[in-house]
């Protein structure tokens, strides 16, 4: 099995420390709001990775953290506290916010058919562990206390700093331009423990040797991964946005504390999902907040099945940017509709094979295995499924057994299909109602809402992305 290692920028043969067991750590969500479908694309890629490893016979010890403290809106220790911001927005406590959005995220994972990690540690349950790691870093001479009392990591003392991101000294200096924290010795230094922050009335605070406060964001991942996977492990995943700061700092913490190098053998990063508005329809206003914040539930309310989105992601390689088109009236994505149609047809073809199972075809399984084992070439793997379905020399029973085996990686539930679709007239009403709302024609918007609800089957409400309709 070959995977692309961000550390070396090369596709490498995968050789885990232990020939059977693989340690896999994935940076989890910050639970202050719903996950964006762009975030979810990263978790879908990680699910393909986990399923591919298991398909190839490995036992995967999969860990994903839940960030419920210490993450400011900027990765560089600036901006607002994300959890506090969520609590203020919804007039709840930070603990309530954390619980609500953790459950929402785990629900999204289930809907997308993502296998749940074996361990899902919360940052707030592991504060002692983080304090221990900071103490170790202090002992190793890698920290200093700023004039504000915060504990900083002195990145100039860590020789390999920036190796993952291939940051050179010049790029690090470039960071000075945006630097606002005068307590730092070097622009790339970061906070390990906050005692003094502008968020003085922070609900989440703990005692520490440096004073009462809370941990920086990065420390939780280096501390908690070691708890579950040991000092060194095989694969660490995340989105590409984590490379320059979060993962770079995780390495500095882990290697700085334990003295081991490399801490992680393989780093894998998923590319972004890019939103593109439909420019063909003139005059329709684009709501920026709605445009930039698409959730899985919004797609569901518009009649898409979460597995349509899974299929959509499957069609493109995880290291390629994926464009998601989004119509001006906020009711549809042509790409996602295409994925829905394709998935529906594929499922129908599999259902048409009947219920009788035969034997797994070794040639097709080989082809499929080669595709997924080539740095998760899922588009190629999907092509193998279609090729098999079209092969008249193979019996339906053998096809079914072979596809079921392949679906253990694809995760499309190809042999069990249930689709709830919004009727076309409801979709039309959603479009009209969004237009009325854009023109601030509230009377018309209310009238359309009543029409939708009078059908007796649907509930119509206002959401972040405009009109939302859910079955009663
Ligand atoms: Zn992390």
Walk me through this protein's architecture:
The chain is α/β, with parallel strands linked by helices and about 475 residues long. It has 3 domains: about 250 residues, HUPs (Rossmann fold); about 140 residues, Four Helix Bundle (Hemerythrin (Met), subunit A) (Up-down Bundle); about 50 residues, no CATH class. Helix content is about 40%, strand content about 15%. It contains 16 helices and 14 strands. The strands form 5 sheets. A 4-stranded parallel sheet has the order 4-3-9-10, sandwiched between helices. Helix 2 crosses helix 3 and helix 12 runs antiparallel to helix 13. The relative contact order is 0.12. About 5% of the residues have low confidence.
Global morphology: flat
Task: Point out poorly predicted stretches.
Answer: 280-291
Major sheet details: 4 strands, parallel
* Overall pLDDT confidence: 89
Indicate the percent of residues in helices: 40-55%
Q: Which fold name fills CATH's third level, the topology of the largest domain?
A: Rossmann fold
How many strand segments? Answer: 14
Give the strand order, joined by hyphens, for the main sheet: 4-3-9-10
CATH C-level of the largest domain: Alpha Beta
Query: What small ligands are held by the chains?
Result: zinc ion
How many separate helices? 16
Secondary structural class:
alpha/beta
Beta-strand portion reads: 5-15%
Total individual domains: 3
């Amino acid at each position: 099995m070959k995977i692309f290692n961000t550390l070396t920028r090369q596709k490498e043969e995968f050789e885990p420390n232990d020939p059977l067991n693989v340690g896999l750590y994935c940076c989890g969500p910050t639970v202050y709001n719903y996950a964006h479908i762009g975030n979810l694309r990263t978790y879908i890629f990680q699910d393909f990775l986990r399923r591919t490893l298991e398909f190839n016979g490995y036992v995967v010890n999969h860990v994903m953290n839940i960030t419920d403290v210490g993450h400011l809106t900027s990765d560089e220790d600036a901006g607002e506290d994300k959890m506090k911001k969520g609590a203020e927005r919804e007039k709840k406590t930070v603990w309530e916010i954390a619980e609500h959005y953790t459950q929402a995220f785990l629900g999204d994972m289930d809907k997308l058919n993502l296998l749940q990690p074996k361990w899902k540690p919360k940052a707030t349950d592991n504060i002692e562990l983080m304090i221990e790691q900071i103490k170790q870093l202090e002992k190793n001479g890698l920290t200093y206390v700023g004039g504000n009392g915060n504990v900083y990591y002195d990145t100039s003392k860590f020789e390999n700093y920036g190796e993952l991101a291939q940051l050179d000294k010049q790029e690090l200096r470039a960071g000075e331009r945006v630097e606002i924290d005068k307590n730092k010795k070097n622009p790339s230094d970061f906070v390990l423990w906050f005692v003094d922050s502008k968020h003085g009335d922070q609900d989440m605070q703990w005692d520490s040797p440096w004073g009462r406060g809370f941990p920086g964001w990065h420390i939780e991942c280096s501390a908690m991964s070691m708890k579950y996977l040991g000092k060194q492990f095989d694969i660490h995943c995340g989105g590409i946005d984590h490379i320059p700061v979060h993962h770079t700092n995780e390495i500095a913490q882990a290697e700085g504390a334990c003295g081991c190098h490399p801490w992680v053998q393989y780093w894998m990063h998923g590319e972004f999902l890019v939103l593109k508005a439909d420019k063909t329809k003139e005059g329709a206003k684009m709501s920026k907040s709605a445009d930039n914040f698409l959730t899985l539930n919004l797609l569901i309310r518009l009649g898409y099945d979460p597995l349509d989105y899974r299929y959509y992601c499957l069609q493109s390689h995880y290291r390629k940017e994926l464009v998601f088109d989004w119509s001006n009236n906020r009711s549809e994505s042509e790409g996602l509709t295409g994925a829905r149609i394709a998935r529906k047809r594929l499922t129908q073809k599999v259902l048409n094979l009947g219920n009788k199972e035969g034997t797994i075809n070794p040639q097709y399984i080989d082809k499929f295995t080669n595709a997924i084992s080539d740095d998760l070439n899922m588009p190629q793997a999907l092509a193998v499924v279609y090729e098999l379905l079209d092969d008249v020399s193979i019996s339906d029973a053998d096809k079914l057994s072979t596809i079921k085996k392949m679906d253990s990686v694809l995760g499309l539930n190809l042999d069990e299909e249930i689709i709830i679709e919004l009727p076309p007239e409801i979709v039309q009403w959603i479009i009209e109602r969004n237009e009325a709302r854009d023109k601030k024609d509230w009377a018309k918007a209310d009238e359309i809402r009543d029409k939708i609800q009078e059908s007796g089957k649907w509930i119509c409400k206002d959401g972040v992305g405009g009109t939302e309709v859910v079955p009663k």
